[in-house]
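Key idea: predict the complex, not the pieces.
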Amino acid sequence: MTDRDASLETIQRELTAFARRARAAAARLHPELSLVSYTLLAHLEERGGCRATDLAAHYLLDKSTVSRQIAGLERLGFVERRPAPEDQRAQVLHLTARGGDTLAQVAANRRDAFRERLADWDGADLDRFAGYLLRYNASNRTPGRRTPQA
Amino acid sequence: MTDRDASLETIQRELTAFARRARAAAARLHPELSLVSYTLLAHLEERGGCRATDLAAHYLLDKSTVSRQIAGLERLGFVERRPAPEDQRAQVLHLTARGGDTLAQVAANRRDAFRERLADWDGADLDRFAGYLLRYNASNRTPGRRTPQA
DNA sequence: ACCTTTAAGTTGTACTATACAACCAGACCT
DNA sequence: AGGTCTGGTTGTATAGTACAACTTAAAGGT
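Result:
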């Protein structure tokens, strides 16, 4: 086996291990917001509101899945629906104050967890690791679709 | 925000994105074996058989979950149970020939997918990325438990 | 030796995330 | 106006998972 193969093997193994653990780890870190809910809220915050369809396209989720996720978040009072001015079919989803607070709280938890976990990494390594992850994820775009990235 | 914070932010975001996509991506890559089944089979192969309890401990899964996963793999003819010589309660799980073949096939698919995806990375980058992932995952050990790693 | 406790595994039950298909309602095109 | 497309909800099904109750066997204490 070449060095290259050994590296590939390690990358595959470690990413697999990470993937297996991630959801449960996130659930432990913030039981009040699943990884997906967290992501959806974060997206709403970042964009300042968008439609359910946009979320589905962006995250490659079925619209029914998004519909139910949003329904859950609305039930929790984290999201509100506003009529879309230009299209009566559509709704624009917005974070509520409560949703924003919760998101901020969870984001802070996550940030702290990462900060602590990576506390003994030096800055240059962090920077390179971040770069590699970006590069890896960027190569994920399903060929043939116009980068419905997620 | 410091450079360090920016890197942490990126790492967090990209790992989250990866985690969100991983299961579905694995399912697309090999529909016949979920990420968890794949991992369990790979573990059995690597160890040459072990008990269900060991799998549960290793992967931080409930024993009922493992029991059902194994039942499924047995139904598919990928795993067989052998009596444990030293403990009448226990069973030692082994890969069958069919299970080994399927695993090899899936592993080859995965290897190819990673190879292709990382085709334009140079060897040094692959090596560093692998090292970072190892280091990151190694820091995951839940404190207070004796490294029931997964 | 007996009784209690612990360990391995299964099964009942419940919940979450997800997909696909059927559907409804509004929009758009000709 | 009629047909088609699009945004969204709902019905249904599946996978993965956990927790609790249970069964059986092993281990330990007295």
